């Protein structure tokens, strides 16, 4: 491809141009992404990269079209675009402690803020919660509502059937001595380093990465390869299969040279099936060191660090982290990165990254936290006596809640037949030995989306609302976030003795799943 020199821009110039053209901040990283993934052509060498101004503008003209009008065409004019939060970066939607641990199906904090804070606009015409009020999330998940309630000066109570979910939620809102956490991290990291000294895994990884680098430089040059695939100059599937076979002897030679045992002897549990032998050994070292921690709060937050680490170290491809089809213990062509990649054979890098990241995020949240109370209870929201349980765990908060009552609910109930909430953290249940209560989940994936599953779902959500209503103030407000494609919530509200008074339909952008079709959800306001 040829272009006029006057048409060329460097990365910074392209960032400035795009920001002016689109009317929003476009970073140099955004421009680099377009180059790396073959969206636009690269001119010059690394360090002096340039792109075509006209090609960049053509790209934005083709893809922006008016995102709002395109989505409304697909999902209806009743779409509330203000609730898309498309002006927020990923760093803002995963701010501070919200990214302490992955969790499927969680909503972004800005959505919670919108309904809990004290602003009004043309859609939200009244304030529902005041500072000091108590908000309830009976499907607490990973604790987004609790964290945002704290930021906004609200008290909050969460409930979750999953013990591990409760640990995630409570770990996010607990006040820590950061120095103590960092001391424990250093001690555990040193133990892991000592273990690694007696193995050849570091040398094996370094040599394997070196071989992959040379191979990818020759057969998958960046960004030329992705550009050619995108413009159908290369049949990606056929080419990738050939190169996978070509690299396999190199991989096998290295595993033999360094005497690396790849697979474990059995695959009966999740930890046995989805982790290489060496990764499993390293996990056990860190786990054993965590058991020595006396302070239960610090023990919990460092357990979350380990869980986050081992989730990233499952033997699978980069594009298959969310679905887990079959374990991958050898090098493979990565569709996500457009080159040959490898599974992980050590947790060390991710343990270092996540332990440091967690400490940093806890410090960030500390600067924002308010002197309010939040707690996640473990139990069945259909039957749990909220105030009694609260009195056992935190009598002071129990007394406050009994006196004030709960002003309302903000929650995202499970969807029908979409996620198995215990299974998504099977590695953590295996490692820590927590009791699983899959049979008490409402609307799990394993029950499907048939008639009986829907009837059971309606009954389950209704029972939750009926039980929780006993602890609510007289003039309560309930907000439930759901993609109600089966139109179940009018019946749920009726069975609960409630009424839907408003609905907010929002587009769900930046989804991580492979399905990128236009998707919306409803925030039901129920009284």
What's the quick description here?
With about 525 residues, the chain is α/β, with parallel strands linked by helices. The protein has helices at about 10-20, 30-35, 55-65, 65-75, 90-95, 110-115, 145-150, 165-175, 180-195, 200-220, 225-230, 235-255, 270-275, 275-290, 295-310, 350-365, 385-395, 395-405, 425-430, 450-470, 490-495; strands spanning about 10, 50, 135, 155-160, 330-335, 340, 375-380, 405-410, 470-480, 500-505, 520-525. The protein has three domains: about 5-65, no CATH class; about 70-165 and about 370-420 and about 435-525, Vaccinia Virus protein VP39 (Rossmann fold), CATH 3.40.50.150; about 180-345, no CATH class.
Give the secondary structure arrangement, pairings included.
Elements lengths: L7 E3 H12 L5 H9 L13 E3 H12 L2 H9 L14 H4 L15 H8 L17 E4 L6 H8 L3 E6 L2 H11 L4 H20 L3 H19 L4 H7 L5 H22 L12 H4 L3 H14 L5 H17 L19 E3 L4 E3 L6 H19 L7 E5 L7 H8 L1 H10 L1 E6 L14 H7 L18 H19 L2 E11 L6 H7 L4 E8 L12 E7 L1
Parallel strand pairs: 3-4, 3-8, 4-7, 8-9
Antiparallel strand pairs: 1-2, 5-6, 9-11, 10-11
Helix pairs in contact: 1-2, 1-3, 6-7, 8-15, 9-14, 9-16, 10-12, 14-15, 15-16, 17-18, 20-21
Strand segment tally? 11
How many structural domains are formed by the residues? 3
CATH topology of the largest domain: Rossmann fold
Determine the fraction of residues in helical runs and give it as a percent range.
40-55%
Radius of gyration: 25 Å
CATH architectural arrangement of the largest domain: 3-Layer(aba) Sandwich
Low-confidence stretches: none
Summed over residues and divided by their number, the pLDDT gives a mean of 91
Biggest sheet strand order reads 7-4-3-8-9-11-10
The SS-based structural class is: alpha/beta
Tally of DSSP helical segments: 21
How far the N terminus sits from the C terminus, by CA atoms, comes to 62 Å
Percentage beta strand:
5-15%
Oligomerization category of the chains in this entry:
single chain
Q: Give the class-level CATH name of the largest domain.
A: Alpha Beta
CATH homologous superfamily (4th level) name of the largest domain: Vaccinia Virus protein VP39
């Amino acid at each position: 491809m040829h272009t006029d020199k006057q048409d060329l821009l460097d990365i910074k110039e392209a960032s400035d141009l795009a920001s002016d053209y689109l009317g929003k901040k476009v970073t140099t990283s955004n421009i680099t992404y377009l180059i790396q993934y073959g969206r636009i052509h690269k001119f010059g060498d690394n360090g002096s990269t340039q792109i075509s101004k006209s090609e960049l503008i053509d790209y934005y003209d083709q893809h922006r079209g008016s995102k709002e009008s395109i989505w409304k065409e697909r999902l209806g004019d009743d779409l509330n675009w203000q609730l898309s939060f498309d002006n927020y970066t990923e760093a803002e939607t995963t701010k501070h402690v919200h990214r302490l641990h992955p969790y499927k199906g969680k909503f972004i904090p800005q959505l919670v803020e919108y309904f809990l804070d004290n602003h009004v606009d043309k859609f939200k015409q009244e304030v529902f919660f005041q500072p000091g009020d108590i908000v309830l999330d009976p499907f607490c998940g990973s604790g987004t509502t609790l964290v945002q309630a704290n930021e906004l000066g609200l008290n909050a109570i969460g409930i979750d059937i999953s013990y591990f979910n409760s640990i995630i939620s409570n770990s996010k809102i607990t006040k820590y001595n950061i120095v103590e956490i960092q001391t424990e991290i250093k001690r555990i990291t040193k133990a892991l380093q000592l273990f690694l000294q007696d193995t050849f895994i570091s040398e094996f990884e370094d040599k394997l990465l070196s071989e992959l680098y040379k191979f990818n430089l020759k057969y998958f040059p960046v960004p030329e390869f992705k550009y050619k695939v995108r413009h159908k100059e290369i049949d990606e599937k056929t080419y990738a299969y050939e190169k996978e076979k070509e690299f396999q002897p190199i991989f096998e030679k290295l595993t033999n040279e360094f005497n690396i045992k790849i697979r474990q002897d059995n695959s009966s549990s999740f930890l046995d099936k989805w982790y290489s032998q060496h990764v499993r050994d390293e996990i056990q070292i860190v786990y054993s060191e965590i058991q020595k921690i006396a302070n239960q709060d610090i023990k919990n937050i460092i357990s979350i660090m380990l869980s986050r680490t081992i989730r990233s170290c499952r033997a699978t491809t980069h594009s298959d982290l969310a679905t887990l089809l079959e374990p991958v213990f050898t090098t493979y062509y990565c569709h996500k990165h457009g080159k040959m990649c490898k599974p992980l054979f050590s947790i060390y890098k991710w343990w270092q990254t996540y332990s440091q990241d967690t400490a940093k995020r806890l410090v960030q949240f500390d600067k924002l936290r308010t002197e309010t109370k939040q707690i996640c209870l473990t139990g069945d929201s259909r039957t749990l006596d909220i105030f009694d349980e609260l009195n056992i765990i935190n009598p002071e908060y129990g007394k406050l809640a009994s006196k004030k009552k709960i002003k309302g609910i903000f929650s995202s109930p499970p969807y029908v037949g979409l996620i198995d909430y215990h299974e998504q953290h099977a590695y953590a249940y295996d490692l820590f030995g927590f009791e699983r209560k899959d049979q008490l989940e409402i609307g799990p994936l394993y029950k499907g989306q048939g008639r009986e599953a829907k009837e059971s779902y309606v009954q389950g959500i209704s029972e939750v609302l009926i039980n929780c209503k006993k602890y609510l103030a007289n003039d309560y407000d309930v907000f439930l976030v759901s993609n109600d494609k089966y139109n179940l919530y009018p019946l749920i509200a009726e069975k609960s003795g409630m009424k839907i008074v408003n609905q907010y339909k929002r587009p769900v952008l930046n989804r991580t799943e492979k399905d990128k079709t236009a998707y919306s959800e409803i925030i039901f306001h129920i009284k």
